[in-house]
Design brief:
eleven-stranded mixed β-sheet, 10 helices, globular, alpha+beta, about 425 residues, 23 strands, about 25% helix, five-stranded mixed β-sheet
């Protein structure tokens, strides 16, 4: 049985420059093309070779053909955002969208995974880690394709944004991807074509697990992952729609199974201020290099981290990110903490306004120029003058939402000799591997 094909949204731009390496066929005109090409977005149309189109489709003439896209933005809205040229296999689809030309790559799932594994982490990672990641990346992707075919009742029942007079609760998933299955950046899974140097080990991991997915016995697992859980993984429903997933629960990232009640403010503060033993609590550079590509290594101190803001900096930042003038910030109060200590609801107390925000990604976006490492943090107010702190220090745990597989923890497990099935059993309790094709 052949692997499915996935449609990946790469970027949306007013002008797209691309190069065909080997022959491509423009399917509408049956024209064979090679070399440099350019398309422009003008008045809602794609202008290509002097003609107007709503959509263009280019099919590779052979399995060796590839295409280059110029100036692709990676790390969108993260602190390491940058542009790079990228090379892709498969077909190229250009669609006239509302804001520009939507660039879509149609590619075999297994080819897609070869890129994802090398984009999400170093292609030199241990074989067992690569196998584990291949299975969860394939599972997540096929679960999304399944959702597209069979929309869930939960999606209709639980809107992803709830705005009230004194509260904004929002989560970010795939609801904005209407023209393709998944995007190419961290919002879904990093997919950077065949630009990232892959290795025989990555190909071996993909081939060894070909068609393998995680299932809970009823459906393909919506297998999530983040860089570093901070010691305990988070439950799915605290980050996205309030629908529990039996295999995405709180797990101590350690051989130890017990952990404190991190929904309790006192326990959470003790946990975050300390550095408890965990697989992901490592400074081993050889292991970290397995998970962190060069730009990820620009981030340090992610198991436990600290960010400091002056009153002026924080008030201006929150005003700009929320559009609300809070005046001076008097306090940041966690109203609800989740099983990993992450804050699901945060009350911002200002001299002019009190307002509550959530869920975790909304909090992280509000309190950082890009994304705060995680929402598992505590707040220290310093140099207080007439109830106004002149500095607020956030001390936190972990990097990312913390749901599912912890990439750094899994890398440590691989280095310690755990098999990929043991890694998956650790992070996805009750799920099991099934070969679909």
């Amino acid at each position: 049985m052949e692997a499915p094909v996935v449609n990946v949204g790469i970027m949306t731009e007013k002008a797209v420059s691309f190069v065909f390496n080997g022959e491509y066929i423009h399917t509408e005109s049956s024209t064979f093309l090679t070399g440099e090409q350019r398309a422009l977005f003008i008045n809602g149309n794609i202008v290509y070779n002097g003609k107007l189109y709503k959509e263009l489709f280019f099919e590779p003439a052979s399995h060796t053909s590839s295409f280059d896209l110029k100036a692709v933005t990676i790390g969108l809205n993260f602190h390491w955002q940058r542009q790079e040229d990228q090379r892709f296999k498969g077909s190229l689809n250009l669609v006239a969208g509302e804001n520009g030309i939507v660039v879509i790559n149609n590619i075999d799932v297994e080819e897609y995974l070869t890129s994802v594994i090398s984009s999400e982490m170093s292609a030199t990672a241990s074989l067992e880690l690569l196998k584990a990641h291949a299975v969860i990346s394939r599972s997540w992707l096929l679960a999304q394709l399944e959702k597209n075919i069979l929309p869930t009742k939960a999606a209709a029942k639980y809107p992803s944004c709830r705005r009230e007079q004194d509260q904004l609760i929002r989560w970010y998933d795939r609801e904005d991807h209407m023209m393709f299955d998944v995007c190419a950046d961290d919002h879904c899974q990093r997919y950077q074509g065949i630009t990232r140097s892959t290795t025989p080990r990555v190909k071996e991991a993909i081939e060894a697990t070909r068609g393998e997915i995680l299932t809970d016995g009823e459906a393909i697992c919506d297998a999530r992952f983040s860089k570093c859980c901070g010691g305990v993984t988070e439950q799915f429903e605290h980050c996205w729609e309030p629908v529990p997933h039996s295999y995405l629960t709180a797990v101590r990232d350690s051989k130890e199974t017990s952990y404190p009640d991190l929904t309790d403010p006192v326990e959470a503060e003790m946990w975050i201020r300390n550095s408890p033993e965990a697989f992901c609590n490592t400074t081993n550079k050889d292991i970290l290099r397995q998970v962190l590509n060069n730009y990820d290594q620009e981030t340090t101190n992610f198991y436990r981290w600290q960010v400091s803001y002056t009153q002026t900096e924080l008030a201006e930042l929150i005003h700009r990110k929320t559009g609300i003038d809070f005046g001076e910030i008097q306090d940041l109060i966690p109203l609800e903490r989740d099983t990993s200590g992450r804050i699901e609801k945060l009350q911002i107390v200002g001299t002019r306004r009190v307002y509550t925000i959530g869920k975790e990604l909304e909090i992280r976006r509000t309190l950082s120029e890009t994304h705060l490492y995680s929402s598992a943090f505590i707040v220290d107010k310093e140099d207080i003058h007439v109830n106004i702190p002149q500095r607020l220090v956030l001390t936190g745990a972990g990097w990312g939402h913390g749901v599912g597989l912890c990439q750094i923890g899994a890398a440590v497990m691989g280095a310690k000799g755990y098999s990929y099935t043991e890694i998956l059993e650790h992070y996805f309790r009750g799920a099991y591997i099934e070969k679909r094709y």
